[in-house]
Amino acid sequence: MHPRPSRRAALRTGGLLAVGTLLPPLSAEQAYAEQAYAATSRTGAATSRTGAATPHTGEATWHTGAAAAYTGAWRAVPGILARIRPPAFPRRMFRVTDYGAVGDGRTMNTPAFRAAIAACHRAGGGHVVVPEGRFLTGAIHLRSRVDLHVTAGATIAFSPDPGDFLPVVLTRWEGTEAYNYSPFIYAYGERDVAVTGPGTLDGQARLGPWESWYRDSGPQGADQKLLREMGATGVPVARRVFGDGHHLRPKMVQFYRCRNVMVSGLTIVDPPMWTVHPVLSSNVTVRDVTVDSTLYNTDGCDPECCSDVLITGCRFNTNDDCVAVKSGRDEDGHRVNVPSRNIVVRDCRFSGRWGGMTVGSEMSGGVRDVFAEDCQINPSDFPGRHPVKYPLYVKANKKRGGSIDGVHIRNFTGQGVERDIAFVTMDYNGGEDGTLPVSVRNIHLDRMEIDGAQSVLRLVGLETDQLRDVHLSHSTFTGIRAPDSVVHTEDLTFRRVFVNGQEVPQP
């Protein structure tokens, strides 16, 4: 952990000169938070919840501090981590309260956030600081070199009125590009941009109409079908306009075509749909974030068509997948044709309803080189509302097409899995009458230790498109209630794998 700053250091941090004006000093708590965050940005090091610093060299793991073995496909990881660096920001401070924001939970602060962000950007960048209080707002649009810093005791509460997320912006909705309601926090085409903690983002989704849009055959279904038809038939994106009068829920935090992105330290609660959603972005860090979601289809973190992504030290109590790597849907995903690659997930806790580590189902642009290690499934000290169904969940079909090549999982521990340890299917949702070629290969699980599941493996390849190269090694599974189910799978191997005390022979 960072040492407490001296009074002089705190004052220096709290009273910074910005554009020739000495800003009002921050409280000691705010000054300390800023100093700790700035030190982390300068060093590029992440700090675990136990206080052990882990450089981005990949030379140590947070769980043990011991050197990790980077052999085989894992040899790529140190190079990936060396390219991932949190953005750095000038030490200028712009408090939203200096631009008219009121933290009483009732006053609408959208103009104040907009003014503070604009001033920070014009000055060459810095930190837009949200002090203690509850700040109600509509959409927040970030600019380059701006860190939105939510201090301890501060909450950004998002309006339940869909009109506060207009005008529409270019976004991606379940893997198809469209103009829709703005994500609650949004950036397009920006560089060096961040949202940092230790405060809270509250989507207040249960206070808005979002749930009624999809429950009980709600109106979202018709717009969902229309958008998918537009993507399938090649309707120009400029004509795919939804928003007012339509019912496609917005995402919570979305960075679109951005570089050098960070989301750090925050608690994010009650999002209307996917929570943290970087799209077509590179050099992305998501660290020490807690997600608590309740509405349907509220994934935790969904990097889509992204490269060089680190998700570390996060906790996901979600009503859908915890981490889901994506790359576009069906024909529109092939039109954009950008894969997700070089994704590293470390030291996370998964308590979500479906997959812990997930790939797909929107994977038409391709996914390769995904690495996840040292994660916990259904940890007893972080119970979720729903147990994880699949620690590893890979979803593809012939409607999506595309390929998944290289999903590497190791050092997962846990308990109480609702269904299977690993469910890899190339026939997701019954195939959806697709005819495109699809490829899934190179799935590796190593050093897993999980107690309680229906089965270890459920592998579903296709007669026309076999699932290939699935390998389990050095793992122990107990409390397994049923045998594996393996269909149309080539080159399945086991090495030192024990199920209910018995070593699994080679198939």
Automatic annotation (TrEMBL):
Keywords: Glycosidase, Hydrolase
The keyword Hydrolase appears for this protein: yes
Cross-referenced InterPro entries: GH28_Enzymes (IPR051801), Glyco_hydro_28 (IPR000743), PbH1 (IPR006626), Pectin_lyas_fold (IPR012334), Pectin_lyase_fold/virulence (IPR011050), RHGA/B-epi-like_pectate_lyase (IPR024535), TAT_signal (IPR006311)
Recorded superkingdom: Bacteria
GO molecular function, one term: hydrolase activity
One Pfam family from the record: Pect-lyase_RHGA_epim
Rhamnogalacturonase A/B/Epimerase-like pectate lyase domain residues: 94-146
Keyword Transcription regulation: no
PROSITE patterns recorded: TAT
Family, similarity comment: Belongs to the glycosyl hydrolase 28 family.
Protein name, UniProt field: Glycoside hydrolase family 28 protein
